[in-house]
Amino acid sequence: MNSIIKLKIRKKTFKKKGFSILNDFELEVEPGEKLSIIGESGVGKTSLLNIIGLLDTQYQGSYKLFDTSVKDLSRNKLAEWRNQKIGFVLQESALINSLTIEDNIKLPLMYANIEKDLTVQDRFKRIVTKIGIEPILKKKPLECSGGQRARAVFARAVIMNPQIILADEPTASLDSKNKEKIINLLFDMNKEFNTTVITVTHDLDVANRHERIITLERNE
Predict the structure, then answer these.
(1) Among 92, 97, 124, residue whose Cα is nearest residue 108
(2) Domains located in the chain, CATH noted
(3) Are 38 and 89 spatial neighbours (Cβ–Cβ below 8 Å)?
(4) pTM of the model
(5) Most exposed residue of 86, 95, 109, 134, measured as fewest CB within 10 angstroms of its CB?
């Protein structure tokens, strides 16, 4: 089976801060794999997710995603893949305060011009029901709690049924009940659609529920 991700990073340098991270880091991920990334603060966990998710191309190394060299992709193609092939569950809410929760969740559908597709509408209903956010769909983000916003961000990340989900501390602001809802939905998608799941977490219980754990360590 061909790896969905083949990444070789020589280093990611922060010139203004005078240091580098992810030195000589290599990663291969198979389709449908469940992988967690752990490590102390500052070792490059979020930076690694940004590189995998095509948000950051400023590093030394090579990256093949879906058997295609990322360096060969145009800016438009990078944006298309970020919207349609990769789902981001971000640590920061990143919701648009002027839009309702429903419209925030449906943004990727609007960008792809498929928001009226009946299959997609059914998926939307299933996701918001499963994670329990129907009561807040007509509210604006600032009218919601941190945990409600986190669940809305998760719903937006998975609404396009992406091939890869990148989750940055997806359960950090959730109570145990809602944490279970998020993890179960992640793993349900993995089982049903062979979705590749990569999760950055400080929660060892969450990490251990993945098939493989990568531990990042500070560069000497």
Answers:
(1) 124
(2) 5-215 (3.40.50.300)
(3) no
(4) 0.89
(5) 134
